[in-house]
Write a structure and sequence with these properties.
Length: 255
């Protein structure tokens, strides 16, 4: 049995995978203690895939501005692989929809992007895809230490800062702000489209998966007519953990 773990800025999701089917195990608030406690509850796991909201290089955390802990001190007795959460999301979408060229955008506490080219995750030198920290403009401070980044305008933490409420509450009250900051987000995705020409832009996460597909068509307003990627809103909160399972399965098969 494979365990897939999605360690996000606010919540951690866990799935079990037997090679054919997925079984939801738990969702808990993110903390290192909670992650350890949940893993201890699961017997007979032979490999683990860990998706984490962090900048990773060669499997090591370089920076994790949206996580509530600074040290990743998880000790595991089985083979495991650790990958950026947005990369896991994009990889799961690629596998499930059988698409080899796409970008996956996760919007939750922060914003991440995974890039799939010819069926493989594109890492660049290791940190490719950090769209949330691309420079938009202005002096608004970002959680990463920079200023004027995309997350400053559109992300879970910036929505909370600007509106005084969690995005979940705004969705529930049908008051989610499809405003000028949402338009900035759409412009950013249009720029990604021009750079990579994906067949699909898949958008997920606890905020991204609840966005209006109709509103997201705003992306097309900023694109030449020759660029028309399909926009998919992925409503499955466990898609990142599924991607972690797929990666752990591939790792296990190579051992």
């Amino acid at each position: 049995m494979i365990l897939g773990i999605d360690i996000g800025g606010s919540f951690t999701d866990m799935l079990l995978y037997d090679g054919k089917n997925f079984f939801i195990h738990s969702t808990v608030p993110t903390s290192m203690e909670n992650v350890k406690n949940e893993i201890e509850k699961i017997p007979d796991v032979d490999s683990i895939g860990i998706a984490i909201a962090a900048w990773l290089k060669e499997g090591k955390i370089m920076h994790a501005p949206n996580l509530p802990f600074k040290e990743f001190d998880l000790k595991l007795d089985v083979p495991y692989i650790m990958e950026n959460d947005a990369n896991c999301f994009a990889y799961a979408v690629s596998k499930i929809f059988n698409e080899k060229n796409l970008v996956g955008i996760t919007v939750g506490t922060g914003i991440g992007m995974g890039i799939v080219i010819d069926g493989k995750i594109y890492h660049g030198m290791g940190l490719a895809g950090e769209i949330g920290h691309t420079f938009i403009g202005g002096d608004e401070p970002c959680v990463c230490g920079g200023k004027g980044h995309l997350e400053c305008y559109f992300s879970g933490w910036s929505i909370r800062k600007r509106h005084g409420k969690e995005a979940k509450e705004l969705f529930e009250k049908n008051k989610f702000p499809y405003d000028e900051n949402f338009e900035i987000f759409c412009r950013a995705l249009a720029n990604v489209t021009l750079l990579f020409d994906p067949s699909i832009i898949a958008i997920g996460g606890r905020i991204g998966g609840r966005l209006s597909k109709e509103k997201l068509h705003k992306i097309y307003d900023f694109l030449p007519s020759q660029f028309q990627p399909e926009i998919k809103v992925i409503k499955d909160d466990y898609m990142v953990a599924k991607g972690a399972c797929y990666m752990a399965e591939e790792m296990k098969n190579k051992l």
